[in-house]
Design brief:
about 180 residues, mainly alpha, about 65% helix, YdjM-like, transmembrane, transmembrane helix
Amino acid sequence: MIFFGHVGITTAAFKLYENIVPVEKVNENESYIDYRLVAIGSILPDIIDKPIGAYFFRSTFHNSRIFAHSLVFSMFLIILGSYYFKRSKNNGFITLGVCSLIHQILDSMWLYPGILFWPAYGLKFPTRPEGNWLAMNIANLLRNPAVYMPEIIGAIIVGYYFIMLVKNKRVKEFLKSGRL
């Protein structure tokens, strides 16, 4: 999955949660779920791992899925978030951790146990075959329904919420508060 699949599907999962489970309000004007953090958290593993593994330390890791694609990363954010939430009632780190976990599910990381369960299988990350991963991702996006369908669904979801924000003149409010 590339961008819209992660952002759109994760946003939909949080909206579904918000509609099923009564969401506690921090106060009358502020939503408990900050969808700016949902958007960032849904792609956070790629924001961290792609530059490190594919560019800066390519000769070391030979993989663009490393630390932030492991359960250790998501669990660390969730545990840190739980502690921080108890102290300040701010759920930002929990949101980032859950979104990173959803990212790992959408990336089918269970197929790569050496990364998902790192460091349980050793400190070294498995290497992926060298090649042009960008061209490979574009080719998959054009030919593989398992890649392009989540992207289309995610783009529709992101587009829907964007149109609703524009239509209701709430873009500035979203940028300030993260409310959808």
